[in-house]
Write a structure and sequence with these properties.
Elements lengths: L15 E9 L6 E6 L7 E3 L3 H21 L10 H4 L30 E7 L5 E8 H6 L3 E6 L32
Antiparallel strand pairs: 1-2, 1-5, 2-3, 4-5, 4-6
The chain binds zinc ion (ZN) (3 copies).
The site of one zinc ion has 5 residues, from helix 1.
Length: 181
């Protein structure tokens, strides 16, 4: 009964890249497998163990980040990828709560703010996740870093002002004799 008629903006699903390391083969062998959620990325195996796999995983994450930046960065019209996952990324597992607490119920954080490009790395060094999500969800996720902020969709007010500080600036105006008269 609450179908919203006339969505004013065509929005697209927020993109997610998940890179993970899993034990490969017999646990005693110590080999790990690097896998990426992108179908185009083939699994890689590292018989040498977790350290080599971790290094490769970080490089893989950076490779995707470079491609995302080259492709224009986060898109302002993207839906929050966190919300697409029922905000599970910042909602504690209810079965894991020490007090069975209800203090942080799902839905506590409402999506809001600009779309940001984030990278999350779990503390165990087994999972990395790049995602387009809203700024508010990003702020609610532990160990989640905001790398870039999308300009607002359609409207180009304050173009450039809302760019994240992380955007590398390679060209500089030479400070010189500018006559401002
Ligand atoms: Zn990949
Ligand atoms: Zn969320
Ligand atoms: Zn959100």
């Amino acid at each position: 009964m609450t179908v919203e008629a006339g969505t004013q903006q065509e929005r697209v699903a927020g993109r997610v890249w998940t890179v993970r390391l899993d034990p490969y083969g017999r646990p005693s062998a110590g080999a790990v497998k690097l896998s990426c959620s992108r179908p185009a990325c083939a699994d890689q195996c590292f018989p040498g163990g977790a350290a080599a796999g971790r290094k490769a995983a970080v490089e893989h994450v950076n490779l995707h980040l470079a491609h995302i930046r080259a492709g224009g960065g986060p898109r302002g019209e993207a839906w929050c990828a966190c919300r697409a996952a029922d905000c599970a990324w910042h909602t504690p597992d209810p079965t894991a709560g020490p007090r069975g607490g209800t203090r942080l119920a799902a839905g506590t954080v409402r999506c809001g703010g600009p779309v940001v490009l984030t990278v999350y790395a779990d503390r165990a060094g087994r999972l990395w996740r790049i995602a387009e999500m809203c700024a508010r969800c990003a702020a609610a996720i532990p160990d989640c870093r905001v790398l870039d902020t999308a300009p607002p969709p359609a409207r180009t007010t304050r173009a450039g002002m809302d760019q994240a500080a992380g955007t590398p600036v390679t060209e500089r105006e030479p400070a010189g004799d500018t006559a401002l008269v």
